[in-house]
Amino acid sequence: MARFILQNDLVVSDTATGLAWTKDAALSEFPLTWQEALDFVADLNRAAYGGHTDWKLPNRRELFSLASHDTINPSLPVGHFFENVFHGYYWTATTCHRLPDQAWYVHMGGARVFKGMKHGSYMVWPVRLPPETPGRLLATGQQRCYTRSGKVTDCDGTGQDGAFGSGRTALPRFTDQGDTFYDTLTRLSWLKPSLCPAALSDWPSTFDAVEQMNRDHAFGRSDWRVPHIIEMESLVHMDRHSPAVATDDQRERVQPFYWSATTSAYNPDYAWVLYFNDGAVGVGFKPLAEFFLWPVAGTPQAPPVPGLAGPGPDIH
Questions:
Q1: 63 plus 133 within the same structural domain
Q2: Nearest 5°: CA angle at 260, between 259 and 265?
Q3: pLDDT tens digit sequence for 76-91
Q4: CB 181 within 8 A of CB 175
Q5: Prediction pTM value
Q6: In three state form, how does the secondary structure of 196-241 look?
Q7: Does one domain contain both 22 and 142?
Q8: Where would I find the Lcl C-terminal domain in this sequence (predicted)?
């Protein structure tokens, strides 16, 4: 089954996530401030663009769901139908919890996820979740809305992440299984942070460590591995910081940054890393011992889709 389907000349549907995106990834033509981006999408709804009035600025996990870590310029899955994709940053509707005068954006040239001042100017890519299509992405966790200066405000009519609360949730999401936390949404088991290796390591050493864990049948398992960056990002919670992690127990044990198993397509000397202070997705230089290991166990998605809850559909 193809992942992307042309709904019409203006809209592309993503069968993996249930989201529908504008085919033109540069409808605004020029970069806009964060508030201008929200207003631009509101104007699309007033004009019933593509016959719809429920467009929104994507939240962080929705926009990240388009990212491919195997391609660059643009970092989109092979077989997409999008046009005019800017190889730079696109705004999301998600505010940075620790620094609420900043909002998250995703680099569609290389898949980096970072934050910037809301008065900065970045591109806009509207999305909608058709009411007849159940969403499959994880919720970001953001519940509040903010002004451009970072003050909490009423969510009604803002078009922000907190106004929609889109995505799947579960209470409780994580089940304590002794040495691990089982994620009921992604079906992955994470070693408890207090049991993870305490020392910084270089990238190759993380693979040596999990291989040794499997030889030793550590914590009663032999399927440990270094997580893909998409799996690691699934632990991020956008209504928390320092760390911005969704797990409730042992949050204080979570280290500031972790390696992933995903190599950068820009430069294979680097691998993707997760910064848990706020939840940024960046890269680290593989030979340097500058990041930690958080082992995961369980069946990975193939191919992985950012933010997807549970194993995805059979995508070719």
A1: yes
A2: 115
A3: 999 999 999 999 999 9
A4: yes
A5: 0.95
A6: CCCCCECHHHHHHHHHHHHHCCHHHCCCEECCCHHHHHCCECCCCC
A7: yes
A8: 11-128, 180-296
